[in-house]
């Protein structure tokens, strides 16, 4: 049984299923700052609100908070980074970093644009 209800193209599968990474500064949401909600591309679970997004200049969309219960954290196999996935379907989102002092919350969810879908709103 497929845990993703949205059909994924090959690029999306490479990142969301196979835990790949899109090239920096290429994602459509890197410099996107409209009001709304970012949802999981695979299952459309709400993950981040636009007010969580900030400009980090790292090349990927960055968020300093998530919608409560939406994102799961797990240590990568190599033990060096913390992977973030959709808590509903397990889709790979990216990684989370702490201690960079880029925002008051001192956390950066570094997310692949390919893993997200934006829904405009208030």
pLDDT averaged residue by residue: 93
Category by helix and strand content: mainly beta
CATH-defined architecture: Beta Complex
Q: Cα distance, first to last residue?
A: 35 Å
Strand order of the largest sheet: 3-4-8-7-6-5
Structural Rg: 13 Å
How much helix, percentage-wise, in residues?
A: under 10%
Task: Sketch the topology as an H/E string, one letter per element.
Answer: HEEEEEEEEE
Number of strands: 9
Mind explaining what this structure looks like?
With 122 residues, the protein is mostly beta strands. The protein has a single domain, classed as Beta Complex (Metal Binding Protein, Guanine Nucleotide Exchange Factor, Chain A). It contains 1 helix and 9 strands, in the order H-E-E-E-E-E-E-E-E-E. It has one helix at 10-17; strands at 36-40, 46-49, 53-54, 62-63, 71-75, 82-86, 92-98, 107-111, 116-120. It has a 6-stranded antiparallel β-sheet with strand order 3-4-8-7-6-5. Strands 2-1-9 form a 3-stranded antiparallel β-sheet, with no helix packed on it. It starts with 9 loop residues before the first helix and ends with a strand. The relative contact order is 0.27. The model has no long low-confidence stretch (mean pLDDT 93).
């Amino acid at each position: 049984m497929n845990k993703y209800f949205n059909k994924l193209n090959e690029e999306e599968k490479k990142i969301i299923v196979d835990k790949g990474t899109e090239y920096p500064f290429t994602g459509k949401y890197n410099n996107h700052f409209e009001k709304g909600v970012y949802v999981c591309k695979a299952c459309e679970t709400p993950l981040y609100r636009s007010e969580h997004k900030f400009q980090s200049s790292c090349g990927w969309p960055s968020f300093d908070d998530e919608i409560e219960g939406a994102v799961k954290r797990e240590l990568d196999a190599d033990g060096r980074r913390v992977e973030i996935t959709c808590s509903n379907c397990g889709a790979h989102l990216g990684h989370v970093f702490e201690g960079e002092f880029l925002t008051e919350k001192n956390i950066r969810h570094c997310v692949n644009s390919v893993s997200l879908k934006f829904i405009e709103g208030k």
